[in-house]
Amino acid sequence: MKVVIVGNSAAGIAAAENLRSLEPLAEITVLSQENHPSYSRCLIAEIVAGAVFDSIRYRPDSFFEERNINLIRGVRVHSVNHASSTVSFGEEKEASYDKLLVATGSRPVRLGVAGEELDGVFVLRSYDQAELISRCAAAANDAVVIGGGLVGLKAAYALRRRGLPVTVLVKSSHLLTRQLDALSAAMVEKELREAGISFIYGQNPVGFKCGADPKALGFVVLEDGREIPAGLALVAKGVSPNAELVREAGGEISSGIKVNAFMETSLPNVYAAGDCIEVTDCVTGRQTPSALWTLAVEQGRYAAINMAGRQKAYPDPLTRLNAAQFGRLPFVSVGAMEEGEEFLTWQKEGRVYQKLAIREDRLVGFIMVGLIEQAGVFTSLIKSKRPLGNLRGDFLQGKVSAANLI
Ligand SMILES: Cc1cc2nc3c(=O)[nH]c(=O)nc-3n(C[C@H](O)[C@H](O)[C@H](O)COP(=O)(O)OP(=O)(O)OC[C@H]3O[C@@H](n4cnc5c(N)ncnc54)[C@H](O)[C@@H]3O)c2cc1C
């Protein structure tokens, strides 16, 4: 069997690794646009903060050779021809497949405003971009980050660690609206302000303007007309799935590539996994792009199992599952926090906050700030959909542990 995998990251690597253990004789080729050894994308903000590539490596260089996997780096796949079961890549090259996995991930959304092409305006998705930001940070006097989501805040914190004055522009009423409520977001904001980061709420940029050098960023222009001096700006306003290869080949797309429970797209023998696909959230039942490293790994594994012909259905995942730490403040946010649910909250000394969302006696979501030890237990409760019963009272006193859930 000949298998081609497009993308050398969480989903692609998990698929290649699992496929090799299932199919010792398969011919596996991984085509990767990036020309670097594999690295952990979740850690690229560390490069912005000054870390070196080796500290974010994901697999050793020997990984592919030891498994007899043919990795071709630095080539873009241009198209999929499912009638001839081939992909075209690089400079007029072609590879044929019996099974193809599209694991192309996603890319940052651009604002589409004037001046976005100026030197000094960045997005953060790849090691190369992180490197460029790091180099610009060494020379810049000030930075503006656009977006109060997790990627924006990780980048802002990294730039601040480089010693730059950093301002974050947040359009919504509080930070991390996908992860936190207003109270927990205020705790995170306080920690970031203490680290020296400033915030401007209710504003998006309407443009970027040059300073003395006509090619380089000098100011970020806000909706209210203010011009914020900046030698570096980073746009972090979410991502969009890289679904083109499947769409242009005639495959079904909605907010991402559509796959069935066996990770098959609507094209014959073409599978997809990771940030490029759409999934159904197991708590809300809603279709949503898959946008987590852990999910990409899991989906890569399921794609491998199914490409190897051992039918195994991928269960609907928990798509909202985030953990981060700024300064001394860790937080975890999992599942749904929606209107109509019952909320239980518990706070301690302004440093600890826990909130549970309960629907029909089942835990459907939680936020933990400051004290996160029980996050794993709570997450498994959401996944198992187990009725809470007497456990409900114990929760908020911190008495729930793995032991009393057995
Ligand atoms: C700064 C940052 C912080 C993050 N933090 C977290 C976190 O804390 N927790 C979490 O769960 N997730 C986090 N994420 C998200 C996580 O990185 C992604 O969910 C994960 O990388 C998805 O993996 P993937 O394999 O689907 O795609 P990707 O990692 O995006 O990899 C896709 C690869 O395919 C390549 N490719 C695309 N098109 C082509 C083509 N046509 N030809 C050849 N190659 C192609 C791309 O260049 C890329 O190398 C973070 C992301 C960023 C940017």
From TrEMBL:
<dbReference type="InterPro" id="IPR036188">
    <property type="entry name" value="FAD/NAD-bd_sf"/>
</dbReference>
<dbReference type="InterPro" id="IPR050260">
    <property type="entry name" value="FAD-bd_OxRdtase"/>
</dbReference>
<dbReference type="InterPro" id="IPR016156">
    <property type="entry name" value="FAD/NAD-linked_Rdtase_dimer_sf"/>
</dbReference>
<protein>
    <submittedName>
        <fullName>Assimilatory nitrate reductase electron transfer subunit</fullName>
    </submittedName>
</protein>
<dbReference type="InterPro" id="IPR023753">
    <property type="entry name" value="FAD/NAD-binding_dom"/>
</dbReference>
<feature type="domain" description="NADH-rubredoxin oxidoreductase C-terminal">
    <location>
        <begin position="329"/>
        <end position="385"/>
    </location>
</feature>
<dbReference type="GO" id="GO:0016491">
    <property type="term" value="F:oxidoreductase activity"/>
</dbReference>
<dbReference type="Pfam" id="PF07992">
    <property type="entry name" value="Pyr_redox_2"/>
</dbReference>
<feature type="domain" description="FAD/NAD(P)-binding">
    <location>
        <begin position="1"/>
        <end position="300"/>
    </location>
</feature>
<keyword id="KW-0274">FAD</keyword>
<dbReference type="InterPro" id="IPR041575">
    <property type="entry name" value="Rubredoxin_C"/>
</dbReference>
<dbReference type="Pfam" id="PF18267">
    <property type="entry name" value="Rubredoxin_C"/>
</dbReference>
<keyword id="KW-0285">Flavoprotein</keyword>
